[in-house]
Amino acid sequence: MTGSHIEREDKFDVEADFIVPDVTALLAPGAQVTARSEKLRSHYFDTAALDLLRADITLRRRTGTTDVGWQLKVPHKPAREEIRLSDEDNSELAAQASRGSPVPDELERLLFGVTRGQPLAQVAVVTTERSVHRLLDVDRTLLAEIDDDNVHASVGGEVATAISWREVEIELGHGDEQLLAALGTLLCEAGARPATSGSKLARVLGAAAGDQPTDGAVRGAAGPVMAYLKEQQRVLVAGDLALRRDQAEVIHTTRVAARRLRSTLRTFDRLFEEDRATALEGELRWYAGLLGQIRDRQVLRARLERLIDELPEEMVLGPVRARIDTELGKEQTEHWKRLQSALLGQRYIDLLDTLACWVADPPLTDEADKPVSLLPKLAGRADRKVSRRLQRATASGNVELLHSARKAAKRARYAAELIEPVAGKKKAQKLAERYEQLQDLLGEHQDSLVSAEVLRRLGAKAGTTRGENGFTFGILYARELQCALSVRERAHREAAK
Predict the structure, then answer these.
(1) How far is CA 195 from the centre of its chain?
(2) Residue of 342, 232, 223 lying closest to 293 (CA atoms)
(3) Secondary-structure class of domain 2-209 per CATH
(4) Burial bucket for residue 37 (CB in 10 Å: 0-12, 13-18, 19+)
């Protein structure tokens, strides 16, 4: 049986003689603190390349007095989400272990995009002697838990290593961030320090879990660019895990990450080997296209719902909402199935492999070693392209050129984000905001045209279907065309500035 919960915690390093301070002063009268001891044993699993840890993911099987079973922790900023698989069906887990896979199939499938098919094996064993301090409100609701841990860990390999330390972590229950901060301050006043490692496993593996060369090791102009690419790769991988859990809400952020990757390869093309950059950009375009088919329908359904809400009730004739929801819902479901199929395909895994290789060993040119002052110059090309395309689009009235200008504004915005460490926060943010405003303006034009075409199609079908009426679709169609015209006029004024 699988379940999950959001885990919000802060970790602290402490000395062996550290004493957890009295926290009752932070609680309301009548609240109480209970204490108990427990011993936990956790077996951690990862690939040989530590792909899970690099993605800020940990997988473990825990035994002990409480909190037993399989636990998968994934990023959920500013917290983490813990996915649990209990040991209720021991026969199934035993059968999987007998096939040579100690990790349950359900978790292996979930992590397939992160591991890219590489086997998961035990990488460390951690034993924790824990003193648990539970902070209970007057109604005995759990506000927070302070765990005082004595940790003993071992790592296998050619040379087995063992390490011991003590740490304290605060995990929020029903308390708020203010309580978490106050407890953290109290611990630090007693001698604790914010933890240097994000998890026990990261501390155990130490240098073995360190990042591959990125902004810290790549010098010159390539440094900030590779840091940006790495962050977008992380978002893409996090999106993969969520998509395999049928969480369609991550479609947008995952698609944006793919777009940012593509944009960076094009704007800063002089830093990368042309053939390899072109090949990667093409595969990212393919994947973003799959995501886009779903995202476009998500946006369109919300847009049309809003437009219908704005109409007087007497102007909504027939089952307009039902027709829109049925047609677009069906299309969205079909594209979702195609995406899920692609996530299991070799082409997609090859894309993830390629991205991982780029992060580890980017195919840089000699220009990548030039000073970071090169980056604003390359970003400036994107800025000039926006101006040229907008001028041509407004002068000709060509809607395709307007769409092209929007894409250029998007690339210029991403470039401005990337050069912030070089150009300065104030200047970069000002540029990014200007491009975002233009992107939103031209995006409204594109959305209205796409919406109008869908309304025309659905209206024609409604007009020939018994019990339906094309009247409302026609009104909305006309409004969307007027919206597009209004945006073109605003874009013309923008180009004249």
Answers:
(1) 24
(2) 342
(3) mainly beta
(4) exposed
Confidence (pTM) = 0.87
Among candidate residues 418, 495, 408, the one with its CA nearest the CA of residue 443: 408
Per the listing, tokens 């990667």 go with 280
Rounded Cα distance, 266 and 415, in Å: 10
Residue environment code for 139-169, b if the CB has 16+ CB neighbours within 10 A, otherwise e: eeeebbbbbbbebebebeeeeeeeeebbbbb
pLDDT (tens digit, 9 = 90+) per residue, 153-184?
998 765 568 889 999 999 999 999 999 999 99
pLDDT above 90 for 484: yes
pLDDT tens sequence across 309-336: 999 999 999 999 999 999 999 999 999 9
Mean pLDDT computed over 188-193: 96
**pLDDT value at position 79?**
79
Domains of the chain by residue range: 2-209, 222-495
pLDDT tens-place string over residues 69-94: 899 999 887 778 889 887 655 556 54
**155 is written with which tokens?**
């790592």
Write b or e for each residue in 299-337: b if 16 or more Cβ atoms lie within 10 A of its Cβ, otherwise e: ebbebbeebeeeeeeeebebbbeebbeebbeebbeebbe
Across all residues in the chain, what is the average pLDDT? 90
> In 10 A of CB 338, how many CB atoms?
13
Q: What is the pLDDT of residue 217?
A: 65
**Which amino acid makes up residue 190?**
A
Domain 222-495, CATH class in plain words: mainly alpha
Residue 96: band (very low, low, confident or very high) from pLDDT cuts 50, 70, 90: low
